[in-house]
Design brief:
By secondary structure, the chain is mostly helical. The chain has seven helices and two strands. A two-stranded antiparallel sheet has the order 1-2. A hairpin with a 2-residue loop joins strand 1 and strand 2. Helix 1 crosses helix 2 and helix 3 packs antiparallel against helix 5. The chain is globular. The chain starts with a helix and ends in a 12-residue tail after the last helix. This is Coenzyme PQQ synthesis protein F-like C-terminal lobe domain-containing protein.
Length: 211
């Protein structure tokens, strides 16, 4: 909630990178995190430039978050509590919320109430500490660059649907891993074999957020 407006303002309004610009919280098999997504026009901006601008935004946002007043923080917390206290608009919302607890085998059917209680004791210092903990030297980040191909990306204009081999990025049924050209990304660990990369990772037990 703190990140949404400044994210749109910096990446969409000021940098004009694309219409689809948004941050979101992530819960990947119980591993919590956040992401920033930008959908841009390939003929105007490279994905490496977008990566650089996202990093610039996160740096500026960290400074902004560190200087947020207690009054502003409490106003945001109050707004979030009121949002979680809202009655379900229709029966489907209640069903989906409870069915999620069943299929994930967590069974915390009063999760909203627990989240509200947690928000009431949540502090500004905890929020700032959490952000910098996930942006510091020991933080881990996965940056996914997806580049399309076709006439819109300045590929051959006479390309036919069945003539995929003429594309600059190869057949549509295959992934072509692009080289890293930006100097700022030269030290990044480039993933060119997804299966080999995931096989090298430790397998953690599935985490459930129960309390």
């Amino acid at each position: 909630m703190h990140m949404e407006e400044p994210c749109f303002d910096f990446l969409r309004t000021k940098e004009t990178l694309g219409y689809q610009v948004y941050p979101t919280c992530r819960n990947t098999s119980g591993v919590l995190g956040f992401s920033v997504t930008v959908e841009t026009q390939a003929t105007k901006f490279s994905s490496e430039l977008v990566e650089q601008k996202v990093e610039e935004f996160l740096l500026l946002f960290g400074e902004r978050l560190s200087s947020v007043s207690e009054e502003t923080f409490q106003a945001q917390v109050t707004a979030l509590i009121k949002l979680k206290e809202c009655e379900d608009a229709h029966l489907g919302e209640e069903v989906d919320r409870n069915w999620f607890e069943v299929v994930t085998q967590q069974y915390v059917f009063d999760r909203l109430n627990k989240e509200i209680e947690a928000l009431k004791v949540f502090t500004r210092e905890e929020l700032i500490s959490w952000f910098w903990q996930h942006r510091g030297g020991t933080a881990r980040k996965l940056s996914v660059h997806v580049v399309g191909f076709g006439v819109e990306e300045n590929d051959l204009e006479d390309q036919k649907p069945g003539d995929l081999a003429s594309s600059a990025y190869g057949p549509v049924s295959e992934l072509t891993f692009l080289p890293v050209l930006a100097p700022a990304l030269q030290e990044a660990s480039l993933i060119t074999d997804i299966r080999a990369f995931t096989s090298s990772l430790p397998l953690l037990p599935y985490h459930k957020v129960l309390s």
